[in-house]
Each structure stands twice: as structure tokens, then as C-alpha cells.
Amino acid sequence: MDEIRVLVADDQALLRGSFRVLVDTAPGLRTVGEAGTGAEAVDLAARERPDVVLMDVRMPEMDGIEATRRICSELSDVRVLILTTFDLDSYVYSALRAGASGFLLKDTPPADLLSAVRVVAAGDSLLAPTVTRRLIAEFIRRPAPVQPPPPGLDGVTEREREVLALIARGLSNNELAEYLHLSPATVKTHIGHLLAKLRARDRAQLVIAAYETGLVQPR
After folding, report:
1. What is the pTM of this model?
2. Which CATH class is domain 4-126?
3. Residue 45 predicted with pLDDT over 70
């Protein structure tokens, strides 16, 4: 990827401006638009086709969750990175279900935010084990929104189930390879099969599937 194109969606103009300056001064990144509402974010994403949308959760007209759902369902090549104020924001789990590739706290150090944008743009997901896993474990207990149930694990091999469970526990590809005594290439192959079989968009969606199918139990 030559240049990562970023759309910033936040209802606070000062924050949008700060994120724009941060992104535009980073090598290989460029802001392609700013949105102050969820509806604007959806429209701009369709028009500009950014690589990554930095999406606030709480916005007027349409919240970040609904905006994320629409973007992820209509624009398969656009990734959404949720920005939230609280590490136990009750909306974050819903955002992950909607297709977001991860989330960050708004007080994340600038260097970490830029790194997160690059991670998500590369097609991976941002799953901080100490925070995201806790969120998923907390909100998986809540009734799910009315929507088609997640696919089961029929057709998933025992090895793939093992890989899926470890992904849900927060292990990286390198950690998976070391733990399972597999090559990194083999781990990537297993993950590719899981993405296809579970109709998952990315690693974040695999974590959701692991919990919702009961393969991994919330702690």
C-alpha cells in the first residue's frame, strides 16, 4: 500500500482537526475527509473510499455504530477503527459486531494511534487483549440485537478450532505459531480458512464468532 487514506469522523471539530494534523504529518498517511455526523461519515466513505475510517461512537443524526454497520456492509474494502472515550464503553461490542476492525481510546498516545491505523489498513484487526477481550466477555452476556445468527462451527476442523480459540484469547500470529509448533505460513492458512468458513471480515470478527458459538467462554 503506497499511501493510507484516512477519513476522520467525530462530532467535535477540535478533535477532528487534531486527528487530521496528526495523520497528515505522518509518513504514508493522508486525510481524505472529515465528518461531523454518522450520516456524513457514510456518505464520505462511499465517495472517497478511504482505507480506514476513524469513527467516533457518539455522534448526532446517526451514531458511529450504525455508520459502521452501513460502511462495512456496503464497502468491503473500507476498514473502521472505533474511537471511544471509555475503555468499557457499552457501545464498543456492538461496533465490533457491526464490522469494526478494532477500537482505541481517545487518549491513546499519537504514535500508537498511527500504528493502529497502519495495522487496520493492512487488513489485520486491533485487539488489545487486556481491554478488548474484557469488553467482549462483558457484553457477550447481553442479549444480541435481532439479526441473523452467526454461522456455527460445522466444517471447522479441530486444528482450526484450536487456532480460533487462541485468537480469541489474544494471541498474535507469531505467538500462535510458537504455541502450536507451526510455521507462520501454516497459521496464516488456518486463519484464511476460518475467515472463509465463518464468513468473517477480519480477526475481530473471528473473536466475536469464538464467543458467540460458545467455543470460548467469557471469564
Report:
1. 0.72
2. alpha beta
3. yes
